[in-house]
């Protein structure tokens, strides 16, 4: 009898304590989530009054593709044809085609693993001087960020993957220099590293390029 009474007392005391611990933990987690979701205070009322907005992936996916419903730009493709195209329909400007004029071309000889590597180059992109980034590959998170920026801000950027031989061929056309991801991480991006495409027209399968490179001799 005494043993059973001990069990009953233990349950009577332990269950409320367990429920209380669960409630306290849930409240703590909810407070932490709210703090993480809110903008940190900077100590300046003018700054703290500016509450940033956050765009979810669902909201990005709900936006229309840039240029996805328009007709392709008129006129035949001209220039040198290359056997690679842009990596996603979101990089198109008109009807599935990315049609750019006077584009800066950034060539990377290995994989782009983080968006940090591209922050400097992306800051140079303008409607008057769009940016083409050609790399061996892009990390899925980087590609997703570039696509989101296309949909939300219409950032004038096209992402392309090319193998080493194709990169060398492109360099012959547009000039510039094939950099490494280590160069980008170190912030080394000299003016002579940029290529220039007078005309760039790509779809998901191929690209036509008119370059501005003048081979020496």
TrEMBL record:
<protein>
    <submittedName>
        <fullName>Uncharacterized protein</fullName>
    </submittedName>
</protein>
<keyword id="KW-0472">Membrane</keyword>
<feature type="transmembrane region" description="Helical">
    <location>
        <begin position="6"/>
        <end position="24"/>
    </location>
</feature>
<keyword id="KW-0812">Transmembrane</keyword>
<keyword id="KW-1133">Transmembrane helix</keyword>
<dbReference type="InterPro" id="IPR027409">
    <property type="entry name" value="GroEL-like_apical_dom_sf"/>
</dbReference>
